[in-house]
Specification:
The structure is a single chain. The protein contains 10 helices and 10 strands. The protein is an alpha/beta fold. It has one domain: Rossmann fold, CATH 3.40.50.300. It has a 6-stranded mixed beta sheet, sandwiched between helices. A 4-stranded antiparallel beta sheet has the order 2-1-4-5, covered by helices on one side. The longest helix has 21 residues. The protein is globular. The relative contact order is 0.18. The protein binds adenosine-5'-diphosphate and magnesium ion. Magnesium ion (MG) binds next to helix 1.
């Protein structure tokens, strides 16, 4: 098993609120790790620490054996961290296609040097990005919406666009923050299928999700977090049978 993400002894607090309390996590290529826990546990904060939105107080993060906790967000995206956002953060004044074209790992058009001296390579990169975007939209069944405004789409489709935008980054690690919240019916099936396919294609995936059947269907391993601490790690079945989890999570 090739370890893609290794989080070691990670700590982070906001004043008195501890969001990461000596967190250790490993995710391997092809694996979907479930991250569960009550609201306020620190799940989104952990994604923010891994992807570079937040700086840890201490601890290390390795991606494919390379230490990344000192790198800024854009460089972590470039070396292979793709993610979705709990509140989606889609650009509401843009079309679906425009939302996707913002996301690739690197875009030579953003460099003035390349824009002036290598117009052709910039044009080529844009053609490639459009092609990739259309392939992804096709996979989620939304190729026909490329020119629609995201806000005109139903909620479940907007969530699939959020996933599609993350998939524009073909990096080895994919972080999904509550992808199923508010999603039902055909969009639910699509989300499940695409996430599974991404793992089968070799990505390491971590998914935060309250939907227990989604976790059961997709993950073999999961960790349970509360107050920034990993209280239990194991197979999904072990976790769901755990008294610690049922007491804290389901408020029994
Ligand atoms: N940037 C921030 N500044 C201060 N407190 C924060 C910040 N981000 C999150 N928190 C707090 O950290 C705790 C964990 O939040 P979060 O990581 O969003 O939890 P979860 O995703 O598990 O619901 C919450 O109490 C939240 O209010
Ligand atoms: Mg959250």
């Amino acid at each position: 098993m090739t370890v893609v993400l290794r989080v070691e002894n990670l700590n982070k607090a906001f004043g008195g609120i501890v969001v990461a309390d000596n967190v250790n996590i490993e995710i391997s290529k092809g694996e979907i790790l479930g991250l569960i826990g009550p609201n306020g546990a620190g799940k989104t904060s952990l994604f923010n620490l891994i992807s570079g939105v937040l700086k840890p107080d201490s601890g290390h993060i390795h991606l494919n054996g390379r230490r990344i906790d000192g790198l800024p967000l854009y460089r972590r995206a470039r070396i292979g961290i793709a993610r979705t956002w709990q509140n989606m953060l889609l650009f509401t004044t843009m079309t679906v296609m425009e939302n996707l074209l913002i996301a690739p790992r690197s875009y030579p058009g953003e460099s003035i040097f390349k824009l002036t001296l290598a117009r052709e390579s910039v044009r080529q990169a844009e053609v490639e990005a459009r092609k990739r975007a259309m392939q992804i939209l096709d996979r989620v069944g939304l190729a026909g919406t490329a020119d629609a405004m995201v806000t005109d789409l139903p909620f479940g489709h907007q969530k699939l666009i959020g996933l599609s935008r993350a998939l524009m980054n073909d990096g080895d690690l994919l972080l999904l923050d509550e992808p199923m919240a508010g999603v039902e019916g055909a969009a639910y099936e699509t989300m499940q299928r695409v996430v599974r396919q991404e793992a089968e294609a070799g990505r390491a995936v971590c998914v935060v999700e309250h939907n227990v059947s989604f976790i059961k269907d997709l993950c073999t391993r999961a960790v349970f977090m509360s107050n920034g601490r990993i209280l239990q790690a194991g197979t999904v079945d072990e976790l769901l049978a755990s008294k610690v989890l049922t007491d804290l999570y389901f408020g029994v």
